[in-house]
Design goal:
32% strand; alpha+beta; 18 strands; 9-stranded mixed sheet; Archaeosine Trna-guanine Transglycosylase, Chain: A, domain 4; Aminopeptidase
């Protein structure tokens, strides 16, 4: 599963490394391994750790890796070990990626990955990294660090830090509107996006390709060329996919049917029943349609975010709507469809690397 982030003229590709990649040892797996092994000077046993514990854990599903490639050059990597006592085993961000909030993004995605199993999350790291990045770790509810029982890195005191998962997850939820306010679904900024409510059966036709045009009696051309999230109404009641509204065409119902009848996905009597006596209707031409593997129920989003979101009746804008923005981002993150919009303004603190050009948590033995 991969995600692409567009940063100015650069392209940053995020890849999740799991069972398939661990078994196939594909190029992305090799990129992850090569990036981790760049720490061999400070961690002499890192290759043995990766080739035994990490690879075995990836193949069994016990571990998950992430690698970021800037213009196809690996510049950031993360590894976690799942379980009630989850361990963020490794996080390294090189100088070329600093100032891009990659640390925030990795911590948030790793937290989302273990939301069903983790009770607490722990990691070890050099004392110098803790002191230099204390503000970053505090923002994720890692409030203190203590001396670790084992020393892994050469020439730097080893510390460990631990947070209870509810506190960590709460911190991640608070970051969602800010962190992902600079992101987009597809190539379009989430802050200017919308949620389109569609009944489950017509939505199934959209996902199957039978229905390519959605008809509305009220709509706006402002949503032309915008990416939207697709919300399946009752009884599904959840975010189910994404699409682009490539065109919005307004016209008399007869004209709209004559032009789009074969793509609306219903019979003429059903169409006439819907449009009624309206003199003008709107045809929404949908492209780049993508269904989620599993719809994300509104009830689950409310529970995870600790909010009560109103169900969309027709469509709603994400502008100035942090609750629904967080919900859309959370659903998109869980489905692996996040990109960064190069024109958006980041609203999160930037945690830069130090003089060594690296942000590297201890990877050995955890």
């Amino acid at each position: 599963m991969q995600q692409s982030l567009e940063l100015s003229h650069d392209v940053l590709r995020l890849v999740r490394i799991g069972k398939v990649e661990g078994q196939q040892r594909n190029d992305d797996f090799i990129s992850l391994r090569n990036l981790v092994l760049r720490n061999e000077e400070a961690y002499p046993r890192i290759a043995r750790w990766f080739d035994s514990k990490v690879v075995g854990g990836l193949c069994s599903g016990e571990r998950m890796g992430m690698v970021a490639l800037l213009n196809e050059l690996p510049i950031a990597a993360a590894i976690l070990k799942r379980g009630p006592a989850t361990k963020f085993c490794h996080l390294k961000i090189e100088e070329s990626a600093r100032g891009r909030s990659i640390g925030d993004l990795f911590f948030t995605l790793m937290t989302l990955d273990v939301r069903h199993s983790a009770q607490r999350v722990r990691f070890t790291l050099p004392e110098s990294v803790w002191e230099d990045r204390k503000r970053f770790f505090h923002s994720f509810a890692f409030s203190r660090a203590e001396r670790a029982g084992r020393q892994y890195r050469l020439f730097d005191t080893e510390l460990y830090s631990e947070a209870q998962f509810p506190e960590l997850f709460r911190a991640c939820k608070q970051k969602l509107p800010q962190l992902f306010g600079q992101l987009a679904i597809g190539d379009h900024a989430l802050l200017s996006g919308a949620v389109l409510a569609i009944q489950p059966k017509p939505l199934e036709r959209i996902f199957s390709g039978v229905k390519r045009v959605e008809i509305r009696t009220r709509f706006s051309k402002r949503w032309e060329h915008r990416k939207v999230s697709l919300y399946a109404t009752y009884p599904t009641s959840g975010l189910a996919g994404e699409a682009t509204i490539s065109r919005v065409i307004e016209g008399h119902p007869n004209k709209i049917w004559d032009y789009f009848g074969g793509s609306i996905g219903c019979t003429r009597p059903e169409y006439d029943s819907y449009v009624g006596d309206h003199e003008r209707v709107f045809a929404l031409v949908l492209t780049d349609v993508r269904s989620y593997s599993d719809p994300v129920p509104l009830a689950q989003l409310n529970h995870l975010l600790g909010v009560t979101l109103p169900a969309p009746q027709s469509y709603l804008s994400l502008e100035n709507n942090d609750g629904w923005l967080s919900a859309v981002v959370l659903a998109a993150a869980l489905q692996g469809s996040i990109r960064m919009n190069s024109t958006a303004t980041a609203r999160v603190p930037v945690y830069r690397t130090g003089a060594d050009g690296e942000f590297c948590m201890n990877p050995i033995g955890i």
